Amino acid sequence: MEMEDIQIKPELLLADMLSRVGRLETTQELVLDKTHEFDKELTGFKRDLQYIRQGLDKTSGGINKVLWGMAGIVGLYIMGFILNGGLIVPGVN
User: Fold this and answer.
1) Is residue 45 exposed (0-12), middle (13-18) or buried (19+ Cβ within 10 Å)?
2) What is the spatial distance between Cα 86 and Cα 84, in angstroms, rounded to a whole number?
3) Rounded to two decimals, what is the model's pTM?
């Protein structure tokens, strides 16, 4: 039996094609719905990351201020030590 011997009724062929198209449309709708859900989740993640980034920027800015303050205090202590004669060794001059 060869392919030319098999006869398919056009009505059956049309019904099969329409059912396949219907399944494709349904699948496409599901994929679009999932894509929209992923887009919403991605937008939420981006907002969360911006919030975290802003918090880290504020924290690092505060830490920088504290470190500069500590460096200033250490610098003032060293200057005071030098001005009070802390580096002068008695009997060398």
Assistant:
1) exposed
2) 6
3) 0.47
The pLDDT tens digits for 27-47 are 999 999 999 999 999 999 999
Phi and psi at 82, nearest 5°, equal: -65, -45
Q: What is the pLDDT of residues 8-26, one digit of tens each?
A: 788 888 888 999 999 999 9
Phi, psi of 85 (to 5 degrees): 85, 30
Rounded distance between C-alpha atoms, residue 76 and residue 49, angstroms: 40
The pair of three-digit structure tokens given for residue 44, joined into one six-digit string: 């939420």
Give residue 73's identity as a one-letter amino acid code. I
Helix (H, G, I), strand (E, B) or coil at 76: helix
